[in-house]
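User: Teach me something about this protein's shape.
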Amino acid sequence: MGKRIGMISLGCAKNLVNSEQMMYLLDEAGYEVSGDTENVDAVIVNTCGFIDSAKSEAIDVILDLAEAKAAGSVGKIIVIGCLSQRYQNEMQEELPEVDAVCGTGSYGEIVTICDRVLQGEQLSHFGDIHAPEAAVGRVLTTSPLWEYLKIAEGCDNWCAFCIIPKLRGRYRSRPMEDLIAEAEGLAKQGIRELIIIAQDITRYGKDLKTGENLSVLLRRLCKIEGLKWIRLHYLYPNDITDELIQTIADEPKILKYLDIPIQHISDGILHTMCRRGNGKEIRQLFKELRRRIPGLVLRTSLIAGLPGEGEAEFEELCSFLEEAKIERAGVFPYSPEEGTRAEQMERPDAETAEKRAAMVAELQNRIMEEYNLKRVGSTETVLIEEFDGTVYTGRSYAESPDIDGYIHFKSHELITGDFARVTITDVIDGEPFGMGIAEEE
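Assistant: First, the predicted structure itself:
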């Protein structure tokens, strides 16, 4: 039996894909790898280092593992990913219990790293964060029904509040043929829903200089037999082209759900934060998307308390949300990140940022409740994910996995993994409830 490796993946979906790739490489090399961290030869922690809460979570996990190591239930500790990329020297000095500190350019070298650590080496390994993305298999860990397809790595947007380009490198699109092959493989494994992710999926293909772009990729993905749904996450608003809008509107497999982080709506703040475009263009984009894509559900990310946000700018943000009726939103208080341009800028204090974020979240909760109540009486296609013996649980196009909740319904003899037509009859505890029947293929 091979050495046992435990894997802990923290942070975003893109990080999870990297963890799944490392698990595949280790498995191919003869290691026994899983999410189990008890009585293992080594534990790999794939860290997030984006915001303070993520950094704190990663440090807490590492300290818990250090205690387990001292107790003898964990052999070696390998820390990889954004946090170690960001704090290379500090981590080596302040966490001597860690046996290897590795960066985001080292994922593909995980087998060599494990080999050396298990032979007793204390290791620091930081590969090229700008290297092209290699095609690597994955051990799927999310769901037997849906999975992520990461189409690019890195970021070229350089928003003033964000450290990601320094941690993940410049934007690198994956070759389209690699993506099609991976998606076909996922479909053959039974994946029904594919979630397209990258730091910015709208930039896909610009660095390839082959004429390929996101619209071309999506039209090819839509031809893959077995895939029913394709969901789009992380579109940069200023790169949404007329061609892309038409593709989304035309292709029935592309869910009418778009995740478009805007961060704010104030022209002054957007300019200071080095966001391309302005509030007028965002408003026009959202109106055009709703006009051309009936039933569209929008998701966005918002930051309250950014540098330059006074009462007038905050009121403008709240007024915009009341007007735009964005169905889904993640709301965060601004926290200054070391190494970013925004860190040195004048800003509201932390208490004000927290208070404003809570106010925006409350406003958004009302908008989302209104949206769910308007769905009562409608009939929607739902991917069935669970059955507890009485009630089925699933998601429609309007619910993205792990972030948007579920639809619950009763029916006769349906099968998990199939699709049902569900008539929504009520909203219970903030989530739709209804009655379903099998969907005709």
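Now, about its shape. The chain has a mean pLDDT of 95. The first strand starts at residue 4 and ends at 9. If you'd like, I can walk through any region in more detail.
User: That's plenty for now, thanks!
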